[in-house]
Amino acid sequence: MGLFTGRKLKQAAETLAEALRAEAEDRHPEAERLARQAADLHGRASGPGTAGVADALTVLARALRQQGRSTEAERELRTALAAPALRTALGAAETRQGRGEDTLTAALADWAEHFGPDHHGTAAARAALAAAAA
User: pLDDT tens track of the chain, all 134 residues?
Assistant: First the structure.
């Protein structure tokens, strides 16, 4: 990870922590603003389908819901749930129950499409799928 990326990820994590504090203090419009900023920072630093983006979108969705904006909250949660990082984790959990190959196949395709075949997320999904098939 480059120095620039490391700084961006640190800034994203700090911004998300601020959003969580605002949420805990019922400052939902501020939590919304900060969560949007954290999602953007995570996306620029590590890609749109990563766990950091999904975490920020989850906080954003809660802030929106608290402001009575359930339709927007649902949209953000669906975006978070589509993140390849979360789908890889879900597929790995499903394989322990004798299923999960479909979830892992979809996650692998997303990783490869968005990040390329050599990305560590693509490799992790590929390994999880191979383990599921074994």
Answer: 455 578 888 999 999 999 999 999 999 999 999 999 999 999 988 877 788 999 999 999 999 999 999 999 999 998 888 888 888 888 888 888 888 899 899 999 988 988 889 988 899 999 999 988 87
- Interacting residues of 101 by C-beta distance below 8 A, sequence separation 6+: 91, 95, 129, 132, 133
CATH of the domain at 23: 1.25.40
- The pTM (predicted TM-score) of the whole model is 0.77
DSSP-derived 3-state class of residue 28 = helix
Measured CA to CA, the distance from residue 106 to residue 83 in angstroms comes to: 11
Do 39 and 73 share a structural domain?
yes
Residue 88 and residue 97: Cα distance in Å, rounded? 15
Residues 74 and 91 occupy one common structural domain: no
